Amino acid sequence: MKKQLLFLLLLISVATVKAQTRGVRLGYIDMEYILQNVPDYTDAKNQLELKAQKWKQEIELKRNEVNKLKESLKTEKVLLTKELILEKEEEITFQETELLEYQQKRFGPTGDLIIQKAALVKPIQDQIFTIVQDIAENKYDFIFDKSSDLTMLFAGKRFDISDQVIRRLTRASKRDQLSKKQLKELDEKEAKEDMLDESPEMAERQKLLDEKKNARELLLEERKAAREAKKKEYEDRKQQLIDERNAKKNGTTVTPTADSKEVTDTPKAESKEKAKEADPEKAAKETEKAVEKQQAQEAKNESLEARKKKQEERKQQILETREAAKKAREDKIKEAQDKKEQNKTEN
C-alpha cells in the first residue's frame, strides 16, 4: 500500500511538471483482455487446464484409496492385533503424507501449475511490453495496466490501447507469409488503424464515411443488375421479334413465348422499348411496381382461399355437430323403445 501511494505521489509530481509545458498524455492496457484475445495463449491455457483437470482426478483417486484404508481399518479393528493396527495406521499416515506432497507438487505456491502458467504468460508479456514501449514512444507519457494492483477509479475508453496491442501481436505471425507488396499494403493499413485509435472523433467520422461508401456501392450494384436484366430482356424480345418476321417471310410459324406476347410489330412498340432501354431506372421501377402488384394479387388470392377454407371447415363442423345430435336422439329413442319392450315382456 505504501509503495502504491509513493508511486502515485511521484506520478502526480511528474505530471505537474509536464503539464506546465504541455498536456500529459495517458493511456492504459487491460492485460487480461489482451491475453484472452491472443490465440496462442488461449490454446496453451486450454491444454494447461486439461492437465490440471487430470491432476485433480489423480488426487481424487488417491484420496478415495486413503478413505478406503480408513474404512477397512475401522471395520476390522476389533479383529486385529495391536501390531497389525499400528502397521495399518502407519500405512494410512504414509498415504496421506504422499497425497499432501502430491497436492503441493501440482497446486502449491511453487507447484507445476504456477510454474507452467508463468512460463506460458512470460513470452507473451515480454512481447506486450515491447509493443507498449513502441506505441508509447513520442505518443504517451504514462501507460498503466488496468488489471494490475494499481487501483483505477475511472478509465475512459478512448485511452484504452489494448486493441492496438492485440493487432500488433497478431500482425507479427502474418508478416512471414506475405509478399513485399502485401507488406506495404499492411503497413499502410496499420498506420491508418493506429491513427484512428489515437483519434476517436476521426474513427467515428471514418465509420460514417465507410457506411455511406458501402451504401453507395450497394445502390450502384443494384442499378447495374437492373440495367443488365433489362438489357437482356430487351435483347430477348428483339430476337423474338426478328424470328417472327423471318417466320412470316418464310411462311412458317413461331411459337410465342411469355415475353413475345408483350411485343408487337408496330413502330410505336419499338420506340417504347427503345425508351425503356434509354432509361433503365424507370424501366426497373415499372418492373418493381408490376411485381408488387402481382404479389398483392397473390396475397389477396391467398386470403380468399384461407377464408373459403375456414368457411368449409365451419360448415363441416356444423354438419358433424348435427349428425352427432341426430345420432344421440336416435339412440335415446331406441333406448326408450327397448325399455318399453322389456317392461311388456316382464308383465
Automatic annotation (TrEMBL):
Its keywords, alphabetically, are: Coiled coil, Signal
Entry-linked InterPro entries: Chaperone_Skp (IPR005632), Skp_dom_sf (IPR024930)
Amino acid composition bias (Polar residues), ranges on this chain: 249-258
Q: Which segments does the entry list as coiled coil?
A: 38-105
SMART domains under this entry? OmpH
Instruction: Give the start-end ranges of region Disordered.
Output: 177-204, 226-347
Q: Give the record's GO biological process terms.
A: protein stabilization
Task: Name the GO cellular-component terms.
Answer: cytosol
Q: Where is the composition biased (Basic and acidic residues)?
A: 177-194, 226-247, 259-292, 299-347
Identify the stretch annotated as signal peptide in this record.
1-19
Q: Does the keyword Signal apply?
A: yes
- The superkingdom listed in its UniProt entry is Bacteria
Single GO molecular-function term? unfolded protein binding
Question: Of which family is this protein a member?
Answer: Belongs to the Skp family.
Q: What is this protein called?
A: Outer membrane chaperone Skp
Q: State the organism named in the record.
A: Flavobacterium kingsejongi
